[in-house]
Write a structure and sequence with these properties.
The complex is a heterodimer of chains A (822) and B (103). In chain A, a hairpin with a 6-residue loop joins β8 and β9. Chain A is built from 31 helices and nine strands. Helices cover 65% and strands 5% of the residues of chain A. In chain A, the strands form three sheets. Chain A has a three-stranded mixed β-sheet with strand order 1-2-6. A three-stranded antiparallel β-sheet of chain A has the order 3-5-4. By secondary structure, chain A is mainly alpha-helical. Chain A has five domains: 191 residues, 5 helical Cullin repeat like (Up-down Bundle), CATH 1.20.1310; 91 residues; 212 residues, Up-down Bundle (5 helical Cullin repeat like), CATH 1.20.1310; 100 residues, Cullin, Chain C, Domain 2 (Ribosomal Protein S5, domain 2, 2-Layer Sandwich); 82 residues, Arc Repressor Mutant, subunit A (Orthogonal Bundle), CATH 1.10.10. Chain B is of the alpha+beta class and 103 residues long. Chain B has a single domain, classed as Potassium Channel Kv1.1, Chain A (2-Layer Sandwich), CATH 3.30.710.10. Chain B has a three-stranded mixed β-sheet with strand order 2-1-3. In chain B, β1 and β2 form a beta hairpin. The chains are: A mainly alpha (822), B alpha+beta (103). Chain A: Belongs to the cullin family.
């Protein structure tokens, strides 16, 4: 009652009744309380008067007998526990008719009785708690009771009972791990009891905080360490048992189940603070320590799960690893290794598959040969050239790469929950795979070439789109984009000139996708090439419409053309190419080629036609590209032969006279008559006089190579099952370059890199005027990254070169700063 | 404590002073005192009879105590509280009683 008592001096304050009265009979009061406690422990409290007991304790405390009372009570409780409760428990232990569970039940029931007694005792002794214990910073009576139970029962005589309890509980937990049904409730209750037995009541802390600190308890101090040891032993034995089976799938399935069960157990029995320790121990034993070993199992490990796309196991694996490491380091490490080894296998497999395909073909051909032989015929078989074989390899390689990539994408979405870190790891793995594989840029370009020429034929637009997207997906991984561009432009040029694309739509589609991926600077030249071809087609058809007309509307030029071709129709398709878009250089030597009249007329008319359309433009004719269709009359049969323009020039200039049937023409004569450069001439002669299926001419003497002094004549024995024949000089399909070509290409690329890098440096410096070395490097790399990744040392060389050329100079005060010189 | 709920339906308890006067007060009011609460909530004699004999308090004092129990109950959540009148001559006795009853 905290109310002001306003003193009124005229009234006398009555003294409280008993405060000053004579001292009380201490021993008698204690005796009453002692007996009451005994009664309470015998569960006879209802006969007792709370008020009386409270009053006696109150008076004892009031008369400064608090310590006396407190100590007596503590001793009373301790003695009771030691001499009654403990003895009962020991008897129970000795009792052979009682089992472990009954012992636990007994201790639990004694414990609960004790708690109930203590609550009542401490209620009655409220005043002692409130006044004496608090002021003396001693534990409350209730806690004295708990401590007493711990000291006089559980820990008494070197934990005689405590050790039994721990042993039994751990045994029960182990039994439950092995599927034996145990009494959950008693285990739970006992663990709860152990947790309630406070180990150290920190008096010092209580002084500060005003409340008792319950840090350590019997559970944490004695039980938990043993629990963890027993858990560790269990997990270890389980791991050993599973590892001995050498089955990763089994291991994963079993430990997923084991973890589930153990977590249920933890949830069920263990206190909140203890659960995570057990989980950590379990995760460490089952996952951190052993899972990587399991993943590395050869026959039934991560490698084979990925190979089999075993999404279930991979998903479980992912979840397990997520438990211990949100970065999945272990998984990333293994994935990296596996993707790289996949890369090696990929090359091996592709090689084998190409070889076996070819071997099969050869076998079939061999059979056919045998059959033909048995019929007395000789069958000449053209083997796939080494070039075609490597091209097949290139296409297969990209296909396999895409398959592999798709496989990992599926795994990522179906098993790895689209985890960002793992996705990055996979991307990085594939990037390394493709950039360490030689010629991947060329392979990709060949793959695209093959798609647009053949494999996308009759495919739905969805499938086409998917394939093109796949191409972009590979393209994305490629670091040296300029190398790819080089090849792609070559291949596109061939497709466009030979009209080998399945459709312009697909070509445009592909170009658009490149544009979306890295911008229009990459595709500007591709667009230009495409436009050239389109305009050329329109122009050619206009030309042909105009001059192929017969009858009254026939033009002068038209009749001239017809006259040149023995009064037969002659069509002319030409392609006007802008040199800077196209990969092939202008070949000046071709200007010396002497055209036969038929072709000369076409070229002149074409030139004239073009000049009327575009005045002042310079055309350079390139007869080394393009083809001519010629109808050739052989004894008994005529053939329509498609051949390169240069081959046609040879035939038309030298073998199209009346006496051509028998006349022999020397190599030198042909050289003189056609003006074709010697190397080119040899190549084309070879294709029409040596190649087995298109031996239009007969070479004397007969040998593989063309030499000066060789003679040629029309091959009157020429026979072919087909009426339409194609002479293959310009290889019809794009192929993998040989090493010499490859080095040439790389050299071209190296040069263009120098130009591009220097251009980038100049651009940056022009804009910034003055820049530090590091910043300049960063800017240049940023500008070039879509083309290739320049090495700093390479950029540095180019900077040096530009300083020599006086585009830049070093700052005199600070050598690491460059200045732009206008 | 479902047992005691059944045994103690009465919302009233009886307090008996040392000089034999009885005071019937609501259980709620009695609960204001920690000591009385303890007596009524544990399974001692008092809880089964709902009767508490207070040897320490005479009727005069107990009456004032009861008055305070109700006063406390009524205003415990309020901010503006009227002053509780304490007769000066009783002040010390009340102080002791308050200590005894834990109010």
């Amino acid at each position: 009652m905290n109310h002001n008592i306003v003193g009124r001096s005229h009234t006398r304050i009555r003294p409280p009744r008993k405060v000053l009265s004579s001292s009380i009979d201490v021993e008698k009061s204690w005796d009453v309380l002692r007996k009451a406690i005994e009664e309470i422990q015998q569960k006879n409290a209802s006969k007792l008067s709370f008020e009386e007991l409270y009053r006696r304790a109150y008076n004892l405390v009031l008369h400064k007998h608090g310590k006396f009372l407190y100590d007596r009570i503590e001793k009373q409780i301790r003695d009771y526990l030691r001499d009654t409760v403990r003895v009962k428990l020991l008897e129970k232990l000795k009792d052979t008719s009682s089992d472990d569970r009954q012992f636990l039940l007994e201790i639990n029931s004694l414990w609960e009785d004790h708690l109930l007694s203590m609550r009542m005792i401490s209620d009655v002794l409220m005043y002692l708690d409130r006044v004496y214990a608090k002021e003396s910073h001693l534990p409350l009576i209730y806690d004295v009771g708990l401590n007493a139970f711990k000291d006089s029962v559980v820990k008494y005589n070197d934990h005689e009972i405590g050790k039994e309890v721990i042993r039994i509980v751990l045994e029960f937990l182990n039994q439950s791990r092995h599927g034996i049904i145990v009494d959950k409730f008693v285990i739970k209750a006992i663990i709860y009891m152990l947790e309630s037995l406070t180990e150290t009541v920190n008096i010092d802390v209580s002084k500060v905080t005003g409340s008792t600190s319950y840090g350590e308890n019997y559970y944490l101090h004695y039980f938990e360490p043993k629990l963890l040891i027993s858990g560790h032993e269990y997990f270890q034995s389980k791991v050993k048992e599973l590892i001995d089976q050498h089955s990763g799938v089994l291991y994963i399935e079993k430990i997923v189940q084991l973890i589930q069960e153990e977590e249920a157990r933890i949830q069920m029995y263990l206190p909140e603070a203890s659960g995570p320790k057990m989980v950590e121990l379990m995760d460490n034993d089952l996952i951190t320590q052993n899972l990587e070993f399991i993943m590395m199992l050869e026959t039934d490990g991560l490698n084979s799960w990925i190979a089999d796309s075993n999404y279930t196991i991979l998903g479980q694996l992912f979840k397990l690893i997520s438990r211990v490491d949100s970065d999945h380091e272990m998984l990333r490490r293994r994935l990296r290794a596996i993707i790289l080894s996949n890369g090696n296998e990929l090359s091996q497999n592709v090689k084998q598959s190409v070889e076996s395909t070819l071997a099969k073909k050869r076998e079939e051909e061999e059979k056919r040969k045998q059959i033909a032989k048995s019929h007395g015929k000789k069958l000449v078989i053209r083997h796939k050239s080494g070039k075609e074989q490597t091209t097949l390899y290139a296409i297969k390689w990209i296909e396999s790469f895409l398959e592999l990539k798709n496989k990992y994408d599926d795994i990522l979405s179906k098993s790895f929950e689209m985890d960002v870190g793992l996705s990055e790891e996979i991307q990085a793995g594939f990037s390394t795979l493709i950039n360490t594989s030689e010629r991947s840029e060329e392979y990709l370009s060949l793959f695209i070439d093959n798609c647009i020429r053949k494999s996308l034929k009759n495919k739905g637009s969805e499938e086409i789109d998917r394939t093109l997207n796949d191409c972009i997906c590979v393209f994305r991984f490629i670091k040296d984009k300029d190398v790819f561009e080089k090849y792609n432009r070559n291949h596109l040029a061939k497709r466009l000139l030979q009209q080998k694309s399945l459709s312009n739509e697909i070509e445009m589609n592909m170009i658009t996708k490149f544009k979306q991926e890295i911008g229009s600077s990459f595709t500007a030249r591709l667009d230009g090439m495409f436009k050239d071809i389109k305009i050329s087609q329109e122009m050619s058809s206009e030309f042909n419409n105009k001059f192929a007309r017969q009858g009254p509307k026939e033009t002068a030029v038209g009749s001239k053309i017809r006259a040149a071709n023995n009064d037969r129709k002659l069509e002319f398709d030409f392609s006007i190419l802008t040199p800077s878009f196209w990969p092939m250089p202008i070949n000046k030597t071709m200007e010396n080629v002497i055209l036969p009249p038929e072709l000369q007329v076409l070229q002149d008319s074409g030139q004239e036609f073009y000049d009327t359309k575009h005045k002042g433009r310079n055309l350079t004719w390139a007869p080394n590209f393009g083809t001519v269709d010629i109808r050739m009359y052989y004894p008994g049969k005529s053939y329509e032969v498609n051949m390169s323009t240069l081959s046609a020039i040879i035939i038309l200039s030298c073998f199209n006279n009346d006496d051509s049937d028998t006349k022999e023409v020397s190599f030198e004569k042909i050289l003189e008559a056609t003006g074709i450069p010697e190397q080119e001439l040899k190549r084309h002669l070879q294709s029409i006089s040596v190649a087995s299926r298109t031996r239009l001419l007969k070479k004397i003497p007969m040998s593989r190579d063309i030499h000066a002094g060789d003679h040629f004549k029309i091959n009157n024995q020429f026979k072919s099952p087909h009426t339409r024949i194609k002479v293959l000089t310009v290889a019809s399909a794009s192929h993998v370059e040989n090493d010499v070509e490859r080095n040439g290409t790389l050299e071209v690329i190296r040069k263009s890199r120098i130009v591009e890098t220097q251009a980038a440096i100049v651009r940056v410096m022009k804009a910034r005027r003055e820049l530090k070395h590091e910043e300049l490097l960063n800017e240049v790399i940023k500008q070039l990254i879509n083309r290739f990744k320049p090495q700093p040392s390479f950029i540095k060389e180019q900077i040096e070169d530009l300083i020599d050329k006086e585009y830049l100079k070093r700052d005199e005060g600070n050598r690491s700063v460059y200045q732009y010189l206008a | 404590m479902s047992d005691s709920d059944l045994e103690e339906p009465s919302p009233y308890v009886t307090l008996i002073s040392s000089d034999g006067y009885t005071f019937q007060i609501t259980r709620e009011a009695a609960m204001v005192s920690g000591t009385l609460k303890g007596m009524l909530n544990t399974s001692f004699q008092e809880s089964s009879t709902s009767t508490i004999k207070l040897h320490e308090l005479d009727s005069q004092l107990l009456e004032k105590v009861v008055e305070y129990l109700y006063y406390n109950l009524k205003y415990k959540d309020n901010v503006n509280i009227p002053e509780f009148d304490i007769p000066t001559e009783m002040a010390l006795e009340l102080l002791v009683a308050a200590d005894f009853l834990d109010v």
